[in-house]
Amino acid sequence: MLDKRDILQASILIVDDQLANVRLLSRLLADAGYTRVASTMNPAEVCARHRDQAFDLILLDLQMPLMDGFAVMEGLKTNDDDGYLPVIVLTAQPGHKLRALQAGAKDFISKPFDLVEVKTRIHNMLEVRLLYRKLESYNKALEQAVHERTAELRESEARYRSLTELASDWYWEQDEAGEFTKVCGPVLEMLGLRVAGLDGQGGHALAEGWDEGERQALQGNIAARRPFIDMLFHHVDAATGTRRQFRVSGEPMFDQGCRLIGYRGIGVEVTAGK
């Protein structure tokens, strides 16, 4: 919501080649409590002044010599960074009103002036303009907050991966198609897999020494993209009979749009006496 002071402190530029009109509007605005009112009788300087000062509202006469109000509005469109033309046109010609609105003016005030109408239209226009700016500022702040939060999440994700790798005996990641994209530790050996490009071999299954039921359950969880925690996984060395036990955990990964982008997991050996 806007405070009344926000509206009264808005910056206003009066543009009219008739000194009497400039004085009338300036006095009217001052009496209404507006504190930042400027004026000019030279339409050629309006664009440069608006570029430098970014007026909240321009009261623009349409019929002026050398450069009329329509030409001024065309010039304003080329340097108004926010894409909003804050113009109320002043005209004594009823036929100019529609053309002015089509040219980008947001409202019009008829001459001769009805002072109550002038104050009402200016107040309403400024209220819309300032709310527009507040919304734009809020959107920029929100966009910056999202950007910063995304950076924080990426940094947190990197720390998580680093700590996970340090705290586990092995770590892996797969993409959405199930292809391995990252392997740390003897992941493929423990999973009983060979994957071309990661171990330099052929990509066929190696079942020796692994509990086939556990292995199939583990791969079933991965294939179904189901999260799981501390799943037991065993391996028996065929030569020595040594039995090793692992706890395996995994989870699917999603992007900010909740689209699945892959899978990751860790394994820790919990063999007694390790």
UniProtKB/TrEMBL annotation:
InterPro entries: Bact_response_regulator, CheY-like_superfamily, PAS, PAS-like_dom_sf, Sig_transdc_resp-reg_receiver. PROSITE patterns: RESPONSE_REGULATORY. Residues 128-159 form a coiled coil. Residues 11-126 form the Response regulatory domain. It comes from the Bacteria. Gene3D superfamilies: 3.40.50.2300, PAS domain (3.30.450.20). GO terms for biological process: phosphorelay signal transduction system. Keywords: Coiled coil, Phosphoprotein. The modification 4-aspartylphosphate is found at D61. PANTHER family: RESPONSE REGULATORY DOMAIN-CONTAINING PROTEIN (PTHR44591:SF3), STRESS RESPONSE REGULATOR PROTEIN 1 (PTHR44591). This is Response regulator.
